[in-house]
User: Fold this.
Amino acid sequence: MDQEKFSAKKSAKRSSAKTSEGPKRSKPGAGLEKNKLKAGLYLVATPIGNLADLSLRGLEILQNAEVIACEDTRVTGKMLSRHAIDTPMKAYHEHNAERARPGLLRIIEAGGVVALVSDAGTPSISDPGYRLVNDCIDQGLEITAAPGANAAITGLILSGLPTDRFLFAGFLPSKTSQRSKELAELAAVPATLIFYESAKRLAAALTDMVAELGDRSAAVTRELTKLHEEIRRGTLSELAQHYQDAGTPKGEIVIVVGPPLKKAALTEAELDELIRQKLPDKSVRDLAAELAQETGLPKRRIYARALELSQDIGE
Ligand code: SAM
Assistant:
């Protein structure tokens, strides 16, 4: 929206609700009434499936903003029409973020309200929202949030896995080699891990997780808050086997993986002892698979150590 149009729209919006004392402004975050929003960036969480999952405050902000910055105007348009909101939208996504940001900042600088939403859930989680937030911070502009739905947290609380400490790891790389490398970096994190994953890569990602994280408890949470919501719990190897057999599921997915198994806290000496016991009767590959299952330690790590020890023994 250019500056002139924005100013005209803004004054029309404000004048329609003027009282005898003129339009009132309050601090972001205070109880909001129509046309009382302070200029700034408002991060508004939208539903992740069920269109009723939008807070009353979020609705008010969306109704009263000058513009709603969104990833895909068709997706957000559908949600807005369900709530009879006709606030103008402006596309703000990975591919136009650099170009679109100055215009959004100008609206706020001129005293306007920009609501930022993502296609679904909490803006700035796995989308370019954080750069807009950073620019507002740099320019001393107001920012507040209307919190709400988020797929990672919804998946976590439904997984039944420990919630006291967790790490959100976002999307893993699509290539197996890079995915395995990232998983290996996460293997020692003493926390529940949360991943976003596409349905078509689910089985491959679970298989790599077994190898890199050990056979931990996990949950595949799918189509959260939607008609076909499903939570499948089991060990990583059970889940990998299920999706290898069942094929690619439909819908959107969050994978939640429990913290490292207690046995994974074995000392190097204890692990060496277990390997030495098995080395005479097994190949390094079979031994690594068996001990990964028994201890929950990553197969790759056991394999590497068993190879070293087998060479020592052979020398
Ligand atoms: N901003 C969103 C949030 O707060 O959750 C996440 C956006 S991210 C680009 C999209 C990913 O979130 C999907 O690929 C999927 O992994 C996950 N997701 C979104 N909605 C979901 C749902 N209803 N059920 C399961 N996972 C979902």
About this structure: Residues 299-314 form the longest helix (16 residues).
